[in-house]
User: Fold this.
Amino acid sequence: MTDPKLFQLTEKDKAKYLKLIDDIDTVHSRAITKVIGRKISGMLDDGKLNSVEIALIDDIAMLMGILELHPELPNSVVKKILFAMTYFVDDNDEIPDVIPDYGYLDDIKVVEWVIDDIQSQIPPMTKS
Assistant:
């Protein structure tokens, strides 16, 4: 089982990612969500998911739900969510996704960092 603590984001990483977030064009959000569906399907088709990959899929699904349910989110929050999603779909990010058991460690850390950062700006979920 892969330990997500094996990969940590440094302050230098975060500064680099914040610059990339500034460059995100929110016009492409629909295209990004389509690619995510294919990426998740590919992961599921491979069969054996480890705990990091399962958590990552859950977190990405949550971010997609947030975008869908809250179209009034500040642009800065939307950009951060879209960055997390594009990082997830990039097979050749800091740790290439094809590396068994380790390829998604960086993805989960980036997604968790974004979730932690935007959490206070997301309207609370209500039961209907």
